[in-house]
Amino acid sequence: MTTLKAFKYRLYPTKQQQVLLNKTFGCVRVVWNHNVEVFNQYDKNIAEQQNPLTSTQLRQKFEWMNEVSAAALQQKEMDFKAFKKNYFSKTRKKKIGRPSFKNRDSRQSYRLPNQKFTLNQNSIRLEKIGKVKLVRDRAVPDCCKFMSVTVSKNSCHQFFASVLVELEITQKPKTGQKIGLDIGLKTFLTGNDGFIIENPKFFRESQAKLKLAQRLFSRKVKGSVRRKKAKLKVARIHNDIANQRKTFIQQITSQLIDSYDFIAIEDLNVAGMVKNRKLAKSISDAAFSEFYATLSYKAAWYGKEVVKVDRWFASSKTCSCCGWKNENLTLSDRVFNCSICGLSKNRDLNASENILKEALRVSSAIRTPSECQTEIA
Ligand SMILES: [Zn+2]
Predict the structure, then answer these.
(1) How many A from CA of 313 to the centre of ligand 1?
(2) Rounded distance, CA 292 to CA 308, Å?
(3) Which of 45, 99, 167, 265 gives 20 to 30 Å between its CA and that of 375?
(4) Of 127, 261, 266, 358, which one is the catalytic site residue?
């Protein structure tokens, strides 16, 4: 199976290269905004419609645009055409808004096709920019096909190159193991076999730092240099949090995919839970939706199965041994006690056992009736 995978690297451009990169972001924005402008002027009552200038025509009109890569401008032009096609598509399922203008506060990026860049060991050669220093902390696999590179700048003024490659994925060896996972606020994941991932503390710590930085920022005089600096600090903390979360999720999903062939999880309505403000912080901490997305794509890549169990399925209230339902179970009950078969089990373990059983049932996999065990929590 082939798939597209992006490898993102931090870039360390020289001052001169930074100027050129910023110019490229600006010119790409001009192409996009010109297309948006013409798009917005469309009037069905006028027979003769104005067509947007092509990127080549724009370069003829504005000489300063020749300083940057023509390919980058063409790519942006293609992006707008793709947007337009999607906008007018009759089969489109999701609603999309009208195109919006981009300014300096928007995401700064541009893309180059594969003929316009070369990735080396410690650098990347970009058309019109030259050799830019890069830290290659992840290796691109051999014999993959380079598709494109997206050069970007974040709000902390850091530059990145995200190299998109097409590669062959080899499936991970089968382990024959199955797991049911209960997702919680106290413990991030509880597996029915005792697999446990605690909720990460770092997010809460970063949250405190963020709160302080935001307060300092709001006190600074508008338009001052200090305010600008404080704003950058806030952006840096946001950036750190996102990176920490990403690393955490990458680690646990890899661990799960390596160890299990069949992973059953509860399909929590994250959006619904976030509305509950008390829970909101812990939930965003844990970043459930990112976890789901990462786990699902990795499973698809490596030939493993992830089955989501309906969120209305009463995983906590049901006895994992005999199926009796304890309707009176409250959030503070940490142990599930069954009045019928006498099962006494840790609440999360009981729930994860149920999730696994339910997932096996819905996926019509073979269900072993002898899985009924009595354990003391
Ligand atoms: Zn029971």
Answers:
(1) 17
(2) 10
(3) 265
(4) 266
Q: Determine the distance separating the centroid of ligand 1 and the alpha carbon of 199, expressed in angstroms.
A: 29
**DSSP per-residue letters across 243-287:** HHHHHHHHHHHHHHHHH-SEEEEE---HHHHHTSHHHHHHHHHHT
Selection from 238, 228, 108, 103 nearest residue 160 by Cα = 108
Q: Which among 77, 127, 290, 348 is annotated as catalytic? A: 348
Catalytic residue at 77? no
Long-range contacts made by residues 98-103, C-beta under 8 angstroms, separation at least 24? 98/39, 98/40, 99/35, 99/36, 99/39, 99/40, 100/36, 101/32, 101/33, 101/36, 101/37, 102/29, 102/32, 102/33, 103/29
How far is the C-alpha of 251 from the C-alpha of 239, rounded, in Å? 19
Environment of ion ligand 1 (residues, CB < 5 A): 319, 321-322, 324, 338, 340-341, 343
Q: Which of 182, 290, 353, 358 is catalytic?
A: 182
Per-residue pLDDT at 282: 55
Give per-residue pLDDT as tens, 81-131. Answer: 999 999 988 888 788 888 999 988 888 999 999 999 999 989 999 999 999
What spacing in Å lies between the alpha carbon of 340 and ligand 1's midpoint? 5
Return d(Cα 86, Cα 66) in angstroms, integer: 30
How far apart, in whole angstroms, are the C-alpha atoms of residue 128 and residue 139? 25
Q: What does DSSP say about strands 305-309 and 262-266: parallel, antiparallel, or unpaired?
A: parallel
State in Å: Cα 373 to ligand 1 middle.
Answer: 10
Q: Give me ligand 1 centre to Cα 376, in Å.
A: 13
Distance, in Å, from the CA atom of 348 to the CA atom of 263, rounded to the nearest integer, reads 16
Q: Poorest-confidence range of 63-67, 188-192, 268-272?
A: 268-272
Reply yes or no on whether 333 is catalytic: no
DSSP per-residue letters across 92-149? --S---------TTS-EEEEEEGGGEEE-SSEEEETTTEEEEEE--SPPPTT-EEEEE
Full-model pTM: 0.69
Write down the domain spans for the chain: 2-168, 178-199+251-371
Task: Tell me the CA–centroid distance for residue 264 and ligand 1, in Å.
Answer: 21
Q: Does the annotation count 182 as an active-site position?
A: yes
Looking at residue 356, its amino acid is: L
* Cα(327) to centroid(ligand 1), Å: 13
Question: Higher pLDDT residue, 284 or 120?
Answer: 120
